[in-house]
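Sequence, please.
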């Protein structure tokens, strides 16, 4: 486990605060997943960090800890069709809205990883660039979004093994791009996959 600076428990102490993050923005295939997490007051977990800084094994170990320790959480997704219709940025925001709407406790404030968001039900929100490495609730959301999405892509791999989704999870590896050239795309590919370089330039 890499050593890292302990994350802040919340932005507004004494407030019911939900952290939100997404996984799968830069992929060629599969949905974008988002999670919303409300942690219990006093929750601490020294190992918890931005999911990208954790190994797959570490993320999978932390997932049940987050689920059992959270006041409430929800994980949702937007399909490739929704991504093609909205673009990846706003599909990510829509997935966050879906997750927030499923929380069993209404948050009084929302922490968003990134710098773009549409207001949700008039609840105040704060966008935090690289927030998954600063606040526990966003880090928790990043771990849930990532592990749920990875699991989803691993299950799809069984239907479409030639694309290597078990390993690349839909990201644009050389092997994945070569498989697309050789076999074409599936219903799980984003039709705008050739624009992925442009999509990754969205401010977030």
């Amino acid at each position: 486990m890499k050593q890292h600076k302990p994350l802040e428990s919340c932005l507004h102490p004494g407030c019911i605060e939900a952290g939100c993050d997404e996984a799968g923005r830069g992929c060629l295939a599969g949905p974008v997943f988002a999670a919303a997490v409300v942690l219990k007051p006093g929750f601490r977990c020294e190992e918890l960090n931005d999911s990208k800084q954790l190994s797959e094994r570490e993320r999978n170990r932390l997932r049940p800890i987050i689920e059992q320790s959270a006041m409430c959480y929800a994980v949702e997704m937007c399909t490739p069709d929704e991504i093609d219709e909205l673009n990846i940025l706003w599909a990510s925001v829509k997935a966050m809205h879906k997750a927030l709407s499923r929380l069993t406790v209404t948050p009084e404030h929302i922490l968003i990883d990134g710098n773009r968001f549409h207001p949700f039900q008039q609840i105040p929100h704060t966008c935090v660039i690289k927030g998954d490495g600063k606040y526990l609730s966003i880090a928790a959301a990043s771990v849930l979004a990532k592990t749920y999405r990875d699991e989803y892509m691993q299950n799809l791999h069984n239907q479409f093994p030639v694309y290597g989704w078990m390993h690349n999870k839909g990201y644009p590896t050389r092997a994945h791009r070569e498989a697309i050239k050789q076999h074409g795309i599936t219903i799980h590919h984003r039709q705008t996959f050739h624009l992925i370089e442009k999509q990754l330039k969205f401010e977030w």
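The chain has one domain: 17-199.
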